[in-house]
Write a structure and sequence with these properties.
Helix content is 40%, strand content 22%. The chain has twelve helices and 15 strands. It has a five-stranded mixed sheet with strand order 13-12-11-14-15, with helices on one face. β12, α10 and β13 form a beta-alpha-beta unit. The two termini are 40 Å apart.
C-alpha cells in the first residue's frame, strides 16, 4: 500500500509541475464580460439555476433552456477576478456541478441524467481546475470508496484502519496541492483549489506556505481574501490560544456569551441538523456529556442551521441536553467565521480559563482527552 501511494504521489507531482499557465491574472481586461454557452442532452426545455458557491445559497441568476441549449452572460467585477458557482437544472437540486467563471467565452456540456459529470471550459481558472481534477481523480475515487466503507461499518478496528488509509491519501493531496499552485500561481483556479482542499480542515502549517505561493493579484481576489481570512482565524484559534469570545442567541432568543461559561471545561461544538456526519457523531458527544458533566464539564452547541424548527427537532431527537445557540445564518454563522470553520462537525475543547486545549476530537478521543484533563 505504501509503495502504491508513493507512486501516485510521484506521478501527481510530475504532472502538476509540467503544466504551464497560459496567462497572467487580469489578462482579459477590466471591461470584459463573460458568456457561458451550454448544451444539455436529455432535456428540451427547463431552467438553469446559478448559485453562489461560497458563503450563501442564494440564486445569482437563471438561464432558460430551449431545445437543450442555454446562454448565460454577465460581468465579473475586476476586484473579484473570478466567481465560483454551483449550477443545476431547476427541480433537480441534488445534481449539481461547479463552474469557475471569468470574463471570457466559456462552454458547458452535460447530460441531464448525470449533471455532476458536466464539463465546463473556456476560462483559465476552469481549465486549471479541470486539470487538477484529472490529476486527483484516482485519489477522489479512493477516498470516496473509503468514506462509503467507513459509513457502512460499526467495527471500530475497521474504522480505525480505514481512517489511517484515508489520512495517507489526504497527505498525498496536501503535498500535491502546493506543487500545482506553484506552477499556476497566477491562476484564480489555484485559489479555488486551495479553498476546496486545504480549507476543509485547515492546518496553518500547510495552508500558509501554499497561500504565500500565490501571485499578489490572486491574493487580492475574492478567493484569495477568503483564504487569508481563514488563515487569520485559524492562527487566532489554534491550540494554546485564548478562545475568542462571542455572543449568540439560544433557542429562546436569549443572548449567551461564551465567556459566561468560564470556570468549566467547555466543548464548543459546531454542527447542524442537516449534517449527516454531525448527527452520527452526536451519540459520542452524548456519552461524553453523561460521563463527565458532573466534573466541571459542559458543552455549547453552535448550529449552522437556518431553520429553527429543524434545529430544535434535531436537538430533541438526538437528546442533546446542553446549551445551544445559533444566529440561523447557515454557513454565514458569525462564530463559525471567527473560528475559521469550513466543514462540520468541528469542535474545540477549552479549559476553565477559556484557553484552547484541543481541536476536532471525534469518536472516543473526546472521552480520552476529558479523562486526561479532569483526572
Amino acid at each position: 500500500m505504501r509503495f502504491a501511494l508513493l507512486s501516485v504521489l510521484t506521478i501527481l507531482l510530475l504532472a502538476s509541475c509540467n503544466h504551464k499557465p497560459r496567462y497572467e491574472a487580469g489578462a482579459y481586461g477590466n471591461d470584459s464580460t463573460f458568456t457561458v454557452t451550454g448544451n444539455i442532452s436529455g432535456i428540451d426545455t427547463g431552467r438553469m439555476i446559478f448559485l453562489h458557491r461560497v458563503g450563501d445559497d442564494k440564486v445569482y441568476d437563471t438561464a432558460q433552456i430551449v431545445k437543450g441549449a442555454f446562454k448565460f452572460s454577465g460581468k465579473i467585477p475586476a476586484e473579484e477576478g473570478m466567481s465560483a458557482y454551483t449550477c443545476f437544472i431547476d427541480g433537480r437540486n441534488d445534481d449539481r456541478t461547479t463552474v469557475l467563471i471569468e470574463n471570457a467565452k466559456m462552454q458547458f456540456t452535460a447530460k441531464a441524467d448525470s449533471f455532476d459529470n458536466a464539463i465546463a471550459s473556456g476560462s483559465v481558472a476552469q481549465d486549471d481546475y479541470n486539470a487538477f481534477g484529472k490529476l486527483t481523480a484516482s485519489i477522489d475515487s479512493a477516498t470516496n470508496a473509503l468514506g462509503k466503507a467507513y459509513s457502512a461499518t460499526s467495527d471500530k478496528a475497521v474504522k480505525d484502519s480505514l481512517g489511517k488509509v484515508y489520512d495517507q491519501y489526504d497527505s498525498i493531496l496536501q503535498t500535491m496541492v502546493p506543487a500545482f499552485v506553484k506552477a499556476h500561481n497566477r491562476s484564480y483556479g489555484s485559489a479555488y483549489i486551495i479553498s476546496r482542499t486545504l480549507l476543509v480542515q485547515p492546518k496553518l502549517e500547510v495552508l500558509e506556505p501554499v497561500y504565500n505561493l500565490l501571485d499578489s493579484t490572486i491574493k487580492q481576489s475574492k478567493s484569495g481574501k477568503l483564504i487569508a481570512e481563514v488563515i487569520d482565524a485559524v492562527r487566532k484559534t489554534s491550540v494554546g490560544q485564548m478562545a475568542p469570545d462571542f455572543t449568540m442567541n439560544d433557542r429562546d432568543g436569549k443572548p449567551v456569551a461564551l465567556s459566561s461559561l468560564r470556570g468549566k471545561f467547555i466543548f464548543l461544538d459546531f454542527w447542524a441538523s442537516w449534517c449527516g456526519p454531525c448527527r452520527r457523531e452526536n451519540p459520542n458527544i452524548v456519552a461524553a456529556y453523561a460521563k463527565f458533566h458532573s466534573s466541571k464539564f459542559d458543552i455549547l452547541g453552535v448550529s449552522l442551521d437556518s431553520k429553527k424548527d429543524k434545529w430544535e427537532e434535531a436537538i430533541a431527537k438526538d437528546k442533546l441536553t446542553w446549551n445551544h445557540v445559533s444566529d440561523l445564518k447557515g454557513w454565514g454563522n458569525g462564530a463559525a467565521k471567527t473560528y475559521g470553520i469550513r466543514a462540520i462537525p468541528a469542535n474545540l475543547l477549552l479549559d476553565k480559563d477559556g484557553k484552547i486545549l484541543a481541536r476536532n476530537l471525534y469518536g472516543d478521543d473526546l472521552e480520552k482527552k476529558l479523562a486526561e484533563v479532569l483526572k
